[in-house]
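Quick one, tokens below. Sequence please?
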């Protein structure tokens, strides 16, 4: 399995860009803000108070409760700490979610383009990934109709990701409702990766799978502290679902890593229970930088960018330039010192696009767009 694990082209481009230390980088998928001070202080305090030993497999009770309280309120649904598993980032939450719902040979429906780790994790289980294209005609929103046509009697799970990396789109509530209904009808689980749930701009409305009346045994909702609270390196995520799904995850964790560090979890409690001003400020800043990106990209000859509704990713249509996206990203790096991610890194339907991160300074956005303009002129 390891020998055939699909290599990430994001990582490949990242490594290539290391040879260009002065390159302007729009590659990383993380906030450019530091973790807010009160969260860091809670982590430091926890270490000083010697919370440095093994803790419970499923997470410390305080964190599981804090997550349960937060999402009970957001979803208007009774969530208890027994419904919450704390994980090493959303990444491990995804591992758990697939482990408890999918067996070798099963099919897992994933959007194309999507976060490349979905493909990798499905492969790890010896399951089969079935891609459903998400297109610009549909404003880059996954449609329930398209999911429906990919369902077979081997479908064990459908992974959805709204708001989407790399597309920056937010799915329509009606599609989420219909996918929940399909899960009921066909008996599969919806694994809903919602790590960008709080990075949604004013004109868009995010709906969680947990809000549309999906039966508790038909979905797993994945969240993370990484993006919302600028905590990517703390590696703290979680998955919320029925107790029958969550309890075995704790057993799996015992054999994997035993538990997340207790001090990381105390910092996560502070993130949820402390002031949310930093989250709002970071969101406002992404929204503002989105406008700059949209304005600058859409006047460059041959490029077009649909205004992203969420996240900090611009999914730029480069098809008029007529170059394969990997080739284009390589040329931009080698000739213009600009690092981007080729759309094909996210699946075949990503061909013809580049992903640009706008979690960077205005100056970086402007310099990057100057370089894209220079490329357009030199063609
Ligand atoms: C869609 C999506 N899911 C999951 C993750 C992983 O997040 P975490 O840092 O919580 O593991 C990312 C990170 O880029 C992501 O974009």
């Amino acid at each position: 399995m390891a020998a055939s694990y699909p290599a990430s082209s994001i990582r490949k481009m990242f490594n290539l860009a290391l040879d260009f230390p002065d390159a302007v980088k729009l590659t990383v998928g993380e906030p450019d803000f530091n973790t807010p001070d009160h969260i860091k202080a809670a982590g430091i305090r926890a270490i000083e108070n010697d919370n440095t030993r093994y803790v419970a497999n499923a997470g410390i009770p305080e964190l599981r409760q804090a997550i349960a309280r937060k999402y009970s309120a957001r979803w208007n649904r009774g969530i208890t700490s027994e419904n919450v598993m704390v994980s090493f980032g959303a990444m491990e939450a995804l591992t758990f979610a697939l482990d408890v719902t999918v067996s070798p040979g099963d099919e897992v429906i994933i959007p194309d383009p999507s976060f490349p780790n979905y493909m990798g994790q499905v492969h790890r289980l010896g399951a089969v990934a079935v891609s459903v294209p998400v297109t610009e005609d549909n404003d880059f929103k996954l449609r329930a109709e398209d999911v429906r046509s990919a369902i077979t009697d081997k479908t064990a799970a459908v992974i959805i990701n709204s708001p989407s990396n790399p597309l920056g789109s937010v799915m329509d509530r009606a599609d989420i409702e219909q996918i929940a209904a399909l899960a009921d009808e066909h008996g599969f689980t919806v694994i809903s990766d919602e790590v960008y749930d709080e990075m949604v701009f004013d004109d868009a409305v995010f709906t969680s799978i947990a809000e549309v009346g999906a039966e508790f045994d038909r979905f797993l909702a994945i969240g993370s502290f990484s993006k919302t609270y600028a905590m990517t390196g703390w590696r703290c995520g979680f998955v919320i679902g029925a107790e029958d799904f969550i309890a075995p995850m704790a057993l799996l964790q015992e054999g994997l890593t035993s538990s997340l560090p207790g001090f990381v979890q105390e910092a996560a409690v502070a993130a949820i229970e402390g002031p949310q001003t930093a989250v709002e400020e970071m969101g406002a800043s992404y929204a503002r930088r989105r406008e700059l990106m949209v304005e600058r990209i859409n006047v460059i000859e041959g490029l077009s960018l649909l205004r992203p509704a969420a996240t900090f990713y611009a999914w730029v249509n480069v098809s008029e330039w007529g170059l394969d996206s990997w080739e284009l990203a390589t040329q931009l790096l080698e000739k213009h010192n600009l690092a981007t991610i080729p759309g094909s890194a996210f699946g075949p339907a990503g061909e013809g696009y580049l992903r640009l991160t706008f979690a960077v300074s205005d100056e970086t956005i402007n310099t990057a767009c100057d370089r894209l303009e220079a490329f357009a002129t030199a063609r």
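The CA atoms of residues 10 and 201 lie 26 Å apart. The first helix runs from residue 9 to 17.
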